[in-house]
């Protein structure tokens, strides 16, 4: 099977030797060759325009944007829309939010961190460079120093508890390498043969000497010298072992010996509280060794996470459990993605564009009539419904109502209602009673439905033809025209209601509260 | 406080049993709150099985509670006292519970596998089954799945705890997020529980109907899980809006609040009881801060009275209301504490030999199961792992722990560790 796929791939490559086969063609070829079951057809334009706006602008399209796209008869309009959104200034902000939620998992937020992410997204900073700047933040660079927030937030004390270094080690492994070594802290992992205690301890040697710098007002991290290899014993074996700084699947770095007091190029100044400059900085080595093309865990982790972002499911699941006994669902595909991503200098925007151009991305999320409903098996025969982040929801609601200027005051309440608790990765769609109550009763949300000069509800109430009201409401909120059945039902409801304005508000509410609205489908 | 054995309102309650729901409604006006909600009377008639699971997080010391060893090497400073069951003694830190001993079964032969909090809490609450590459549900999610939500409209698994509330879907493991725990933090109702004045009851009804109709159309051809989960949270939200009275502490008499204790555990136990009365299938009440590595004895001297008061009160009340026969009550931690007293006058983690208490539904009354050796260091009878308890609890709830299996997308999975069995002497 693999061999025939490789042949196919070689054939594709050879056939287009002059112009290299675009990645999106290669992806579709690989997936199609593996699936003999019928696929959901390409999604209609309305679903596509909504999907790609949510992915690249972080919001649903406004009614006029949807209408313009539906009316466009250019056969290349999908590609054109992808390119124009990727070139717009909404894309960097969307990428910033995506990276923020991915890296911080709702632990906290800081303006310098956001500035770093936004700048990185605007410059389309290569992934390896981005990671390098996070792993060894440079306090001298005003543009990138906010990256230190990744560390400093995790180095904070929670109440009486000591700094959670094991938690920091875990997050470095999970988020940059796709390995969760938490359960290998005190012994080799009990269920994952590949994860050894030395993997945890080796990562710990890189980041276990860090502290929050108190001499500066921006997020910054200092390092104490690592003067010897870490000693550890398994709680099961009680045999003492050592490791220097070491990446999973990597080699231990030798720890140089310095005479006491000779560890620094520039010694720390206790008076000014400056941390000094180390001769042997483990963060510097981490930033050199981890984000490299040769580090398969690093490259596989990022392409798997970006694939998950666009397709709703990782090729490796869970995202942070890459190991030999948990192979990817499509090994050649993961390899192809990683190779091509490296070849394209870790270009995030390029990879997202290629993914958006695949047929796989553009399939419908519902199976056509006569077929069994799309299964949860990752065969990509149908698009996987994806959760919307709190940020996507807030922007989408206000795009629909035509009141994006009210975003600032509403963001916090949307985040409180729809974001997960800290440290709980936002991977699946997990509707909550809290969010339902927010949609039903919260004052801030209710205000979005109330008529105000020029907003959606106002416009709808002023539209005398109830059929047009329904058309407009669905286009604005669900980014599609109503089915005739829906149209009839809503019109009948509005016209049969004594209070037309109240009826229209109820219709608008039900559209916002619908499952269809709160998913990227 | 007046004599705890004679409270006038308890007589009222006994009378209510005789008079039935109508009297309940009348008494409701007398200010006894959610207790006498008409739905409660109906619930009592149904005899549906329920669970009250009291989780003592961090590790209660068995030596300062269920298995005292006074005047022994590791016994510590506290005495043992007699209980309502001749021959059974508990620590003097459980004076009120001692008077309820005739309702209780104490297990002194626990022997479990994990001595860490981080893994141990989940391992115990998931029943520590054989590893089959899946994440098992917590006991609450398991019971929610196996017994169902009943017809209260409330979620089947509710968690009353100090701190923040929210929905803890992770508890459900492979059962899927709908079997997670709805947590109420600090005795508070969730935010946004009150309908806005501008929205009429008719509007609410219309909105619900329109939303459902949209969702039904959307669900065609798609995996049902997302749509179902989304509809479910709106249903629960609506029920909670109707049952705001559950959180109204003002409607509870001062005397009743005193009986449970004016502290977080007392408050949460009282709310837990009201949730059971309202028909919630599984209520977990949580107490934190029991990890007494330092100063264990002063620690337990201040912690145990809170537990003792609230636990004894809830046992007494469930019995008075005739609910104890159908509510399984369990009080436990993730492990016990070391008999050896460490250099900080503390006790560390000890899964080797520890205790729990249970009562109610299907459980024998007034007995001790198993024993530890003279110094309390190890079990001196048959050892019982959490798997044995899961078997026993499921059986007590009328669920066959051997024949009943989960179906995880076609993969059959036992509901309790397949190498364990029920503790027969614990069952009626």
Give the fraction of residues assigned to helices of chain A.
Answer: 40-55%
Task: Give the largest interface pair and sizes.
Answer: A-B, 54 and 55 residues
CATH topology name of the largest domain in chain B: Alkaline Phosphatase, subunit A
The overall average pLDDT of chain A, rounded, is 92
* Portion in strands of chain A: under 5%
How many structural domains are formed by the residues of chain B? 2
Task: Report how far the terminal alpha carbons of chain B are from each other.
Answer: 36 Å
Main beta sheet of chain A: 2 strands, antiparallel
Helix content of chain B: 25-40%
How would a textbook summarize the main sheet of chain B?
A: 9 strands, mixed
* Helical segment count of chain A: 23
Instruction: Work out the number of β strands of chain B.
Output: 15
Morphology call of chain A: globular
Helix/strand-derived category of chain B reads alpha/beta
Specify the number of helices of chain B. Answer: 12
Shape of chain B: globular
End-to-end Cα distance of chain A: 31 Å
Describe this structure in words.
Chain A is mainly α. Chain A is 49% helix and 4% strand. Among the domains of chain A are: 109-289, no CATH class; 387-520, no CATH class. Chain A has a two-stranded antiparallel sheet. A two-stranded antiparallel ribbon of chain A has the order 3-4. A two-stranded antiparallel sheet of chain A has the order 5-6. In chain A, 45% of the residues are buried. With 428 residues, chain B is an alpha/beta fold. Chain B folds into two domains: 48-191 and 251-426, Alkaline Phosphatase, subunit A, CATH 3.40.720.10; 192-242. Chain B has twelve helices and 15 strands. In chain B, strands 6-7-5-8-1-9-12-4-13 form a nine-stranded mixed β-sheet, with helices on both faces. In chain B, strand 14 (405-408) and strand 15 form a beta hairpin. In chain B, helix 2 (21-32) packs across helix 3 (38-46). The radius of gyration of chain B is 22 Å and the shape is globular. Residues 1-46 of chain B have low confidence and may be disordered. The chains are: A mainly alpha (521), B alpha/beta (428). The interface between A and B is large, with 54 and 55 residues.
């Amino acid at each position: 099977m693999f061999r025939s796929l490789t042949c196919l791939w070689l054939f594709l490559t050879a056939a287009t030797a002059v112009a290299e086969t675009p990645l999106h063609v290669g992806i579709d070829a690989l997936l199609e060759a593996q699936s003999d079951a019928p696929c959901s057809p390409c999604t209609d334009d309305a679903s596509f325009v909504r999907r790609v706006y949510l992915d690249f602008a972080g919001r649903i399209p406004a009614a006029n944007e949807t209408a313009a796209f539906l009316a466009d008869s250019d056969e290349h309009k999908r590609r054109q829309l992808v390119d124009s959104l990727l070139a717009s200034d909404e894309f960097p902000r969307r990428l910033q939010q995506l990276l923020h939620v991915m890296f911080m998992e709702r632990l906290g937020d800081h303006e310098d961190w956001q500035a770093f992410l936004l700048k990185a997204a605007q410059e389309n900073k290569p992934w390896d460079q981005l990671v390098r700047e996070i792993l060894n933040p440079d306090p001298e660079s005003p543009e990138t120093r906010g990256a230190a927030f990744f560390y400093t937030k995790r180095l904070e004390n929670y109440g009486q508890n000591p700094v959670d270094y094991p938690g920091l080690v875990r997050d470095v492994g999970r988020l940059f390498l796709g390995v969760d070594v938490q359960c290998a802290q005190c012994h080799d992992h009990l269920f994952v043969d590949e994860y050894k205690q030395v993997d945890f301890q080796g990562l710990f040697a890189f980041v276990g000497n860090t502290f929050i710098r108190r001499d500066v007002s921006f997020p910054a991290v200092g390092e104490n010298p690592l003067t010897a290899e870490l000693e550890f014993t398994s709680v099961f074996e009680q045999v003492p072992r050592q490791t220097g700084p070491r990446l999973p699947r990597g080699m231990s770095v030798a720890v140089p010996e310095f005479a006491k007091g000779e560890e620094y190029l520039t010694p720390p100044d206790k008076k000014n509280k400056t941390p000094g400059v180390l001769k042997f900085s483990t963060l510097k080595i981490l930033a050199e060794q981890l984000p490299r093309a040769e580090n398969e865990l690093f490259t596989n982790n990022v392409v798997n996470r970006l694939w998950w972002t666009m397709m709703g499911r990782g090729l490796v699941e869970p995202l942070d459990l890459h190991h030999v006994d948990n192979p990817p669902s499509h090994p050649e595909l993961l390899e192809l993605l990683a190779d091509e991503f490296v070849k394209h200098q870790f270009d995030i925007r390029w990879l997202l564009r290629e993914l958006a151009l695949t047929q796989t991305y553009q399939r419908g999320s519902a199976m056509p009539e006569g077929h069994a409903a799309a299964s949860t098996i990752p065969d990509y025969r149908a698009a996987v419904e994806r959760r919307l982040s709190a940020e996507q929801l807030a922007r989408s609601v206000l795009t629909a109502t035509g009141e994006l200027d009210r975003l600032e005051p509403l963001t916090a309440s949307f985040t409180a209602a729809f974001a997960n608790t800290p440290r709980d990765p936002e991977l699946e769609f997990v509707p909550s009673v809290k969010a339902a109550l927010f949609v039903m009763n919260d004052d801030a949300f209710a205000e979005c439905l109330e008529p105000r000069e020029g907003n959606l509800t106002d416009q709808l109430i002023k539209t005398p033809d109830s059929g047009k009201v329904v058309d407009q409401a669905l286009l604005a909120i669900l980014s599609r025209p109503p089915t005739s059945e829906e149209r009839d039902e809503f019109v009948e409801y509005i016209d049969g209601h004594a209070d037309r304005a109240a009826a229209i508000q109820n219709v608008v509410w039900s559209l916002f509260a619908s499952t269809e609205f709160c998913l990227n489908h | 406080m007046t004599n705890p054995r004679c409270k006038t309102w308890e007589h009222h309650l006994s009378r209510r049993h005789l008079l039935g729901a109508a009297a309940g409604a009348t008494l409701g006006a007398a200010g006894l709150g959610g207790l006498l909600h008409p739905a409660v009377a109906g619930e009592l008639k149904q005899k549906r099985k329920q669970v009250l699971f009291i989780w003592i997080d961090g590790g209660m010391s068995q030596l300062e509670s269920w298995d005292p060893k006074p005047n022994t090497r590791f016994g510590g400073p506290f005495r043992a006292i007699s209980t309502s069951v001749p021959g059974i003694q508990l620590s003097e830190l459980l004076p009120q519970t001692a008077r309820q001993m005739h309702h209780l079964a104490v297990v002194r032969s626990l022997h479990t596998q994990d001595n860490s909090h981080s893994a141990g809490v989940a391992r115990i609450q998931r029943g520590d089954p054989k590893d089959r590459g899946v994440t098992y549900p917590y006991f609450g999610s398991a019971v929610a799945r196996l017994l169902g939500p009943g017809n209260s409209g409330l979620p089947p698994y509710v968690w009353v705890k100090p701190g923040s509330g929210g929905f803890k879907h992770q508890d459900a493991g492979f059962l899927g997020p709908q079997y997670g725990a709805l947590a109420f933090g600090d005795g508070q109702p969730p935010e946004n529980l009150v309908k806005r004045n501008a929205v009429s009851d008719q509007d609410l009804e219309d909105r619900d109907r329109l939303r459902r109709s949209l969702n039904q159309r959307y669900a065609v051809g798609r995996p049902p899980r997302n749509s179902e989960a989304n509809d479910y949270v709106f249903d629960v939200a609506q029920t909670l809006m109707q049952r705001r009275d559950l959180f109204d502490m003002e409607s509870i008499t001062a005397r009743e609040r005193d009986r449970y204790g004016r502290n977080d555990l007392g408050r949460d136990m009282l709310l837990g009881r009201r949730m059971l009365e309202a028909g919630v299938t599984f209520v977990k009440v949580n107490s934190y801060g029991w990890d007494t590595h330092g100063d264990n004895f002063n620690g337990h001297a201040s912690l145990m009275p809170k537990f003792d008061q609230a636990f004894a009160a809830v046992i007494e009340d469930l019995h008075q209301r005739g609910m104890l026969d159908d509510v399984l009550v369990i009080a436990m931690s993730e492990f016990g504490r070391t008999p050896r007293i460490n250099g900080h006058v503390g006790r560390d983690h000890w899964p080797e030999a520890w205790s729990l208490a249970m009562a109610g539904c299907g459980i024998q009354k007034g007995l001790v199961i198993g024993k530890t050796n003279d110094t309390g260091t190890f079990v001196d009878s048959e050892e019982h792992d959490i798997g044995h308890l899961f078997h026993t609890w499921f059986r007590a709830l009328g669920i066959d722990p051997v024949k009943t299996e989960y179906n995880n997308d076609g993969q059959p999975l036992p509901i309790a560790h397949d190498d364990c069995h029920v503790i027969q002497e614990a069952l009626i």
